[in-house]
């Protein structure tokens, strides 16, 4: 069983950071490439602002009408012949899949990469039923063989170089093209032999009862078309009201995620194969998953997290993620959105300290295509943590007292300055927060005094 | 399971904000107003950048051009949909120098055989989209979706007069909302991956090559 | 705040403004604060500096101590009660007061007053460019500089654009752009406290990037960033001297 990485962010972060190996360098190069490609796509700031506003509004609409949209989606999917199942928890979701697998006597399954499936630990759950599950995206499959955990929600092997990926397969190919040829050959047999295909869903359109799958490799199409059963899993926030929501959301998604105007394949599935069609699955199932999302929904601010379309841009632009890598984050989602989602899904203790892994700089908030106020949510998460377990309360109470009363503030500066004269200098490392604010560096006169000397008015 | 549905919806309803939101303004997705020549040119450029190949058959008989291309490229023939009008035209005009395999039986009956085919799957399209560099594929009972997925090469017939500026425009003008098929595909190049290094790598699970044949008018004519 | 709102507000040029010095400038770089103040006076404005000001509350806020942050924030807001713009020589403090204060006071009795306060907050460079439309004349000798905008504000408060406008007005100043746009210095957000190694790595990378420009001066808008990187910049090969943009602009344009 592939275990998720440690919940000890500190240690994992340290490891990730000091890893100057080719893998981390490769990951950074890949991230730089993703960032510059995205920048090229959104080089027109007016278009970016307008499209983003539209995308944000469409996602807000989804959340505003979420229960009705889910009902409409279910009605129209059902009318199209797609069977809809609801799961409050990961356990329920896995049980539904287990039942379907048993009923249809599935022995072999092919699976397309999906963050929700990772969230559910679905791969392991199905394997424990004695079903062979093959990850079908070229790198996911190799990660599977190497028993590794994805490090990025869109590009799961961001941390791997081509050279590192090859040995995972046990093959001797050393070039990327060779790797792809080998992956294609191996997986074609699996696609042909599979009884069922498993995928995520990028968007689910309520108006038409349609599941939209966005990909480059063609393996999601294979999973959804070739075996006799297609099982799709999605978080309940993925629904959208109208088919015309898809163009702007799709554009924001692919350009933000990989800097592509569109991916090679966008499939819009509105049912199993029609009775006179010669191919397509006999049965299509959709599992709608909660797993903490309704909890997020209950709070007007946390609810905004559910606007996420899983593009990964926030983590691509995070200087912390760049330094420590995705394995330092617990759960299925790394980077910024993971920092906010994980505590909801894994419980505060496990993932609570993640929120400190931010400098509250702005890039994530600037690049989010659907206007999620990530910086504000991070602050909110920290406030929530402190309410649960604030270790430094006395310190901040004292600090607040000093800074609320001008006289105390002035007094404390005098004290600090005197201290500064007697405290020893702080040695390097020179980029060091306590050293930066050493009282020794305080000036003899502060701005208040200079302003008074210049006779600047007080009120 | 009905309990899960009920519980989820109840929780959502309990927290739902019933306030008014202004409706999204889709109008900003309006067409760009490119000329027909510009549209074709841009579409070609974008698709070629993604690895798509083009065969311009606007002034020639496309079926002859295709057969020459297949021979020159060492692609052993075609798999095609025999009951479509285009399929009938292909059968009638095939010069027999390469195999022509009809997709007659359900996929389930000959899956391994189809997977082993080395020829090109050939399909029609329902137009192209400039903004994203895409083709619209509308598989149905006569023209199975596997033709654009399983064979290693996919040949797509595009009527140049049926090119839209944007996806939104295509969707509205073709009235997708009221007639969605079981499987509608936007196709924008040969299969590729962005997951290996910083450059896209072409040729993964879907077709390794995509050839677009440009025609003027109905290809079945 | 989007540009149209900024433009609307800037339509009326004020005669009087408040100046919010910020605690780090107050304690470590008061000359920079004074320079910012004088830049405003040089444009004919009356400047008010409420002596009771201390800190915007960013430290407890980013640490998650909302009550303590609120107490200190409210103490500041009350000092700036007249309907005048509040000019702030720090990207992170301006962001705190403008973007985060409203959330902090949501649902409290002080909400309306705080929202009014936040709407009047301007980062110094933004105020100079968008409201005053300053035209600086360079009296200094040729010099090469690089610019490090505090990451919170470079886009959300248009700081990057405005700083570039001002620096480019100085004819003898050559501005060398830093690569890797989205890197930050590691200061603040609590990172330096909780994850010092990550902060240190970020800072070290930023320093290396600055040193690589071979600029003589590194220009900052935010005292926190300056203090964080100062030692490292001095020790880098070649070294770079940090300077707050207010001080730099004042010195170059007023000999």
Describe the structure.
The complex is a heterotrimer of chains A (459), B (221) and C (255). Helices cover 51% and strands 10% of the residues of chain A. Chain A has 459 residues and is α/β, with parallel strands linked by helices. In chain A, the strands form two sheets. A six-stranded parallel sheet of chain A has the order 1-10-7-4-2-3, with helices on both faces. In chain A, strand 5 and strand 6 (210-215) form a beta hairpin. In chain A, helix 2 packs antiparallel against helix 12 (246-258), helix 16 (335-346) packs parallel to helix 19 and helix 20 packs across helix 21. The longest helix of chain A has 20 residues, at 22-41. Chain A starts with 8 loop residues before the first helix and ends in a 6-residue tail after the last helix. Chain B is of the alpha/beta class. The longest helix of chain B has 14 residues, at 2-15. In chain B, the strands form three sheets. Chain B has a six-stranded parallel sheet with strand order 1-12-7-4-2-3, with helices on both faces. The model of chain B has no long low-confidence stretch (mean pLDDT 94). In chain B, 29% of the residues lie in helices and 21% in strands. Chain C is an alpha/beta fold and 255 residues long. In chain C, 53% of the residues lie in helices and 12% in strands. Chain C is built from 14 helices and eight strands. Chain C has helices at residues 3-10, 23-28, 30-42, 58-63, 66-77, 91-104, 111-119, 124-131, 153-156, 159-169, 191-194, 196-213, 223-235, 245-253; strands at 16-19, 46-48, 86-88, 121-123, 143-148, 173-176, 217-220, 241-244. Chain C has a four-stranded parallel sheet, sandwiched between helices. A four-stranded parallel sheet of chain C has the order 6-5-7-8, with helices on both faces. The mean pLDDT of chain C is 89. Classes of the chains: A alpha/beta (459), B alpha/beta (221), C alpha/beta (255). At the A-B interface, helix 2, helix 3, helix 4, strand 1 and helix 10 of A face helix 1, helix 5, helix 6, strand 9 and strand 10 of B. Strand 9 (265-269) of chain A pairs antiparallel with strand 9 (183-187) of chain B.
């Amino acid at each position: 069983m592939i275990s998720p990485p440690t919940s000890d962010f500190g240690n994992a972060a340290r490891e990730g950071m000091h890893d100057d190996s080719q893998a981390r360098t490769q990951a950074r190069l890949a991230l730089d490439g993703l960032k510059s490609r995205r920048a090229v796509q959104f080089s027109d700031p007016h278009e970016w602002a307008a499209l983003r506003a539209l995308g944000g509004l469409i996602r807000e609409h989804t959340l505003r009408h979420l229960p009705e949209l889910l009902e409409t989606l279910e009605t129209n999917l059902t009318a199209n012949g797609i069977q809809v199942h609801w799961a409050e928890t990961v356990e329920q979701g896995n049980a539904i899949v287990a039942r379907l697998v048993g009923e249809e006597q599935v022995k072999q399954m092919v699976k397309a990469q999906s963050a929700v499936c990772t969230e559910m630990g679905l791969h392991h759950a199905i394997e424990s039923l004695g079903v062979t599950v093959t990850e079908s995206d070229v790198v996911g499959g190799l990660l599977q063989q190497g028993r590794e955990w994805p490090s990025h929600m869109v590009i799961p092997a961001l941390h791997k170089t081509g050279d590192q990926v090859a040995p995972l397969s046990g093959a001797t190919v050393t070039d990327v093209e060779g790797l792809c040829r080998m992956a294609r050959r191996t997986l074609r047999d699996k696609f042909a032999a599979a009884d069922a295909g498993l995928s995520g869903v990028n968007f689910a359109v309520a108006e038409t009862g349609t599941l939209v799958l966005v990909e480059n490799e063609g393996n999601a199409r294979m999973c959804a078309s070739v075996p006799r059963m297609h099982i799709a899993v999605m978080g309940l926030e993925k629904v959208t009201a109208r088919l015309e929501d898809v163009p702007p959301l799709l554009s924001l998604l692919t350009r933000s995620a990989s800097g592509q105007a569109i991916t090679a394949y966008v499939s819009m599935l509105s049912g199993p194969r029609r009775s006179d069609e010669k191919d397509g699955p006999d049965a299509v199932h959709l599992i709608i998953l909660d797993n903490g999302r309704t909890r997020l929904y209950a709070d007007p601010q946390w609810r905004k997290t559910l606007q996420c379309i899983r593009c990964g841009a926030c983590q691509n632009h995070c200087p912390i993620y760049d330094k420590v890598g995705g394995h330092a984050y617990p759960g299925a989602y790394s980077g910024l959105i993971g920092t906010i989602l994980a505590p909801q899904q894994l419980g505060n203790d496990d993932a609570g300290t993640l929120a400190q892994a931010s400098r509250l700089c702005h890039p994530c908030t600037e690049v989010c295509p659907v206007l999620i106020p990530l910086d504000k949510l991070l602050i909110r998460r920290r406030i929530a943590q402190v309410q649960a377990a604030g270790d430094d309360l006395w310190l901040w109470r004292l600090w607040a007292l000093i800074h609320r009363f001008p006289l105390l503030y002035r007094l404390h500066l005098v004290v600090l300055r005197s201290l500064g004269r007697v405290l020893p200098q702080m040695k390097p490392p020179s980029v060091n927060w306590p050293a930066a604010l050493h009282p020794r560096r305080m000036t003899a006169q502060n701005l208040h005094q200079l302003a008074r000397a210049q006779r600047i008015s007080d009120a | 399971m009905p309990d899960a549905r009920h519980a989820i919806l109840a929780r959502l309803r309990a927290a739902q904000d019933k306030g008014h939101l202004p409706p999204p303004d889709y109008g900003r997705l309006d067409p760009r107003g490119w000329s027909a020549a510009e549209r074709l040119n841009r579409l070609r450029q974008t698709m070629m950048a993604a690895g798509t190949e083009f065969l311009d058959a606007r002034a020639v008989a496309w079926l002859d051009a295709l057969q020459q291309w297949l021979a020159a490229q060492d692609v052993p023939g075609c798999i095609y949909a025999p009951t479509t009008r285009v399929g009938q035209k292909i059968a009638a005009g095939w010069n027999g120098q390469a195999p022509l395999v009809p997709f007659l039986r359900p996929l389930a009956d000959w899956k391994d055989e189809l997977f082993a085919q080395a020829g090109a799957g050939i399909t029609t399209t329902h137009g192209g989209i400039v903004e994203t560099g895409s083709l619209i594929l509308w598989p149905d009972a006569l023209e199975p979706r596997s033709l654009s997925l399983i064979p290693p090469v996919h040949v797509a017939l595009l009527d140049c007069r049926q090119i839209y500026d944007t996806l939104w425009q295509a969707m509205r003008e073709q009235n997708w909302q009221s007639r969605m098929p079981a499987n509608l595909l936007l196709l924008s190049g040969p299969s590729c991956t962005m997951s290996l290094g910083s450059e896209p790598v072409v040729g993964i699970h879907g077709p390794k090559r995509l050839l677009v044949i440009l025609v003027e008018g109905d290809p079945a004519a | 705040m989007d540009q149209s709102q900024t433009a609307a507000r800037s339509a009326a040029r004020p005669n009087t403004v408040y100046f919010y010095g910020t605690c780090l400038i107050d304690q470590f770089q008061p000359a920079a604060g004074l320079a910012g103040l004088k830049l405003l006076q040089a444009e004919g404005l009356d400047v008010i500096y409420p002596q009771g000001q201390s800190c915007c509350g960013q430290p407890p806020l980013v640490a998650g101590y909302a009550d303590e942050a609120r107490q200190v924030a409210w103490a500041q807001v009350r000092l700036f009660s007249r309907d005048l713009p509040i000019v702030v020589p720090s990207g992170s403090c301006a962001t705190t007061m403008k973007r985060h204060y409203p959330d902090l006071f949501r649902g409290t009795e002080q909400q309306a007053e705080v929202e009014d306060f936040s709407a009047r907050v301007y980062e110094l460079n933004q105020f100079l460019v968008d409201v005053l439309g300053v035209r600086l004349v360079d009296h200094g000798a040729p010099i090469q500089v690089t610019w490090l905008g505090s990451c919170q504000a470079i886009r959300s408060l248009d700081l990057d654009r405005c700083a570039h406008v001002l620096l480019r007005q100085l004819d003898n100043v050559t501005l060398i752009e830093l690569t890797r746009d989205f890197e930050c210095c590691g200061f603040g957000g609590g990172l330096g406290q909780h994850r010092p190694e990550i902060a240190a790595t970020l800072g070290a990378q930023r320093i290396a990037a600055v040193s690589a420009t071979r600029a003589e001066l590194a220009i900052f808008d935010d005292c926190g960033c300056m203090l964080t990187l100062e030692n490292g910049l001095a020790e880098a090969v070649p070294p770079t001297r940090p300077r707050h943009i207010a001080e730099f602009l004042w010195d170059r344009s007023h000999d």
